[in-house]
């Protein structure tokens, strides 16, 4: 049973559980129903209530209490928060935060979900399970229906009813397999003890489903799925456009038959978060090119003469001449009074006025005018006796 709100509301019940009034049914399951609960001055919640038949089954009540206990101990942003636990008239109930965004199952069925959003949801799931594993808790029933979404699209793991702590006994009995066949690990199929690696296998199937659009195994019955999980190697995934190819490799690593060969959940969370930061090639090029261009502009402003070799007479010189003028103007603005010094210190620089065409040499004229015996302009030479 999950606490995802359906698109169509059902008939209100009007019953009360604790301080909450049950207004509508959000979902139905074999063990009970999930209701929308409201109370004055409190946010809306989801209330999960065991039905009368399930309340008489010892194993079901044990799992229900285990879910409540585990949910209260695991405080994590990506795990559904348990608000209250109790019983009313012999019926056990759990009050949890409301998740109005649906489930991961609905997200997987939508073809228009951006790859970054889907990978982000999977990263949040892996992060929550890595936290649970660090606390010694194994979920044992990871599937898209047990991943609920907030209104903003954030993922939270729910339904720890089959979860088992390291110091608790297993609820699996001989001839009875607990879990969902489509997402069950090979060791669970063989009746072996479920570990953190079993959750890794289930997450691997969800990753495979997200990046390819289909399951690694198909069968007409639960028995067919169980056989393939235990005996058949998954086909190499054909990753859809928009998803990094590395996620196909990650999915196959998670689906290793040997639990010891699978990555840890913490590693999966890290690799998924890293995949969400992958940028298109054009963006990666720009991230390198922009700092380089900025550095070149700074150098050109600090030392405009570096552009001189590019300003000589050739086809593409005009833009560089404009760039040099701009760099010189910027240099003069940033370094006032340094333009003349820069020009004087430039190797091979000619003195001002030396290259003016047709320039008169004032020093030479003055020297000739002061020379003894030189004729002044406009005077007649003296007659010699």
SSE blueprint and pairings:
Blueprint: E1 16-17, E2 20-28, E3 32-39, E4 42-50, H1 52-55, H2 58-73, E5 82-88, E6 91-97, H3 104-108, H4 115-134, E7 137-138, E8 147-149, E9 155-157, E10 164-165, H5 186-189, H6 196-212, H7 222-231, H8 246-254, H9 265-276, H10 281-302, H11 317-334, H12 339-345, H13 362-369
Antiparallel strand pairs: 1-2, 2-3, 3-4, 4-6, 5-6, 7-10, 8-9
Helix pairs in contact: 4-6, 4-9, 6-8, 10-11
Strand element count: 10
CATH class of the largest domain: Mainly Alpha
CATH-wise, what's the superfamily of the largest domain?
Transferase(Phosphotransferase) domain 1
Beta-strand fraction estimate: 5-15%
Major sheet attributes: 6 strands, antiparallel
Tell me briefly what this model is:
With 385 residues, the chain is of the alpha+beta class. The protein has helices at 52-55, 58-73, 104-108, 115-134, 186-189, 196-212, 222-231, 246-254, 265-276, 281-302, 317-334, 339-345, 362-369; strands at 16-17, 20-28, 32-39, 42-50, 82-88, 91-97, 137-138, 147-149, 155-157, 164-165.
Descriptive overview:
- The protein is of the alpha+beta class.
- The protein folds into three domains: 16-97, Phosphorylase Kinase, domain 1 (2-Layer Sandwich); 104-276, Transferase(Phosphotransferase), domain 1 (Orthogonal Bundle), CATH 1.10.510; 283-341, no CATH class.
- The protein has 13 helices and ten strands.
- It has helices at residues 52-55, 58-73, 104-108, 115-134, 186-189, 196-212, 222-231, 246-254, 265-276, 281-302, 317-334, 339-345, 362-369; strands spanning 16-17, 20-28, 32-39, 42-50, 82-88, 91-97, 137-138, 147-149, 155-157, 164-165.
- The chain has a six-stranded antiparallel beta sheet.
- A hairpin with a 2-residue loop joins β3 (32-39) and β4.
- It is elongated and about 95 Å long.
- The termini are far apart.
- The relative contact order is 0.07.
